[in-house]
Design goal:
By secondary structure, the chain is an all-alpha fold. The protein has a single domain, classed as Glycerol uptake facilitator protein, CATH 1.20.1080. The chain is built from 10 helices and no strands. The two termini are 27 Å apart.
């Protein structure tokens, strides 16, 4: 498992590029529009695949049916979608699909700060398009399906009564900071050398799967503000009221990871 016609300065490396590669010249880089489009597509895929699995398949057709994919299936869905997205368009944009990843890479010096706002906007647009597509599909489902999904929070992140396991705000904040820091650290490590380029999508996807297995019971797993906002848009007032935690905590975790990586690799 993050965004004028003048092309921004090429980053030293991103999730799809290794430190051993020569930096591409400005003329060789994909256009700004292409990079933003790739980020929007990847975030759309992440939300549509991950949140969609949580909405439609986690307990299909009801909580008592053993054919539902459960927490494991949802965790795999998020991991597989980010793996597919990085493999598909990582070479265009770097494959962030997550504002926290973009911020973490900027703190680490992997991308310029001036690239971050455009990436984040693209990620938010892609994520909301993904959740909107899921809402449209649910609206044509069995009677009351969309309303039921919204009443249940639309797979939003939460704490307290909105936490799958009833965990409080402090637990949700702590686990999101820790796991986002872990996620960004893995991304920085696995994309730091050209030799790892072929396995980077797999490692990143499996790391996101593990993160979900750990934290779904606590916070329903964010580590991605775009994913959290996209679900909260359709999750009702409780989800919207709590989404701040899943913006702040991942960004803090990403900043810690990026700053630490830069300090330790100077």
């Amino acid at each position: 498992m993050s965004r004028s016609t003048t092309t921004a300065k090429a980053p030293r490396d991103t999730p799809a590029q290794g430190r051993g590669q020569k930096a591409a010249s400005a003329g060789d880089r994909p256009s700004t529009a292409a990079r933003w489009g790739a980020e929007a597509f990847g975030t759309f895929l992440l939300v549509f695949g991950g949140v969609g699995t949580a909405l439609y398949a986690s307990a299909f057709p009801d909580d008592g049916n053993a054919t539902g994919v459960g927490f494991l299936g949802v965790a795999l869905a998020f991991g597989l979608t980010v793996m597919a997205g990085v493999a598909a368009v990582g070479g265009v944009s770097g494959g962030h699909f997550n504002p926290a990843v973009s911020v973490g890479l900027a703190f680490a010096g992997r991308i310029g700060w001036r690239e971050v706002p455009g990436y984040v906007v693209a990620q938010l647009v892609g994520g909301i398009l993904g959740s909107s597509a899921l809402a449209l599909i649910a609206a044509d489902g069995p009677a009351g399906y969309l309303a039921s999904a919204q009443d249940a929070g639309f797979a939003s992140n939460g704490y307290g009564d909105a936490s799958p396991g009833g965990f409080g705000l402090a637990a949700a904040l702590l686990i999101e900071v820790i796991l986002t820091a872990v996620f960004v650290t893995v991304i920085l490590a696995v994309t730091g050398q050209k030799a790892y380029a072929a396995v980077a999508p797999i490692v990143i996807g499996l790391t996101l799967t593990l993160i979900h297995l750990i934290s779904i019971p606590v916070s329903n797993t964010s580590v991605n503000p775009a994913r959290s906002i996209a679900a909260a848009v359709y999750g009702g007032p409780v989800a919207l009221g709590q989404v701040w935690a899943f913006i702040v905590a991942p960004l803090v975790g990403a900043a810690i990871a990026g700053f630490a990586h830069r300090a330790l690799t100077r």
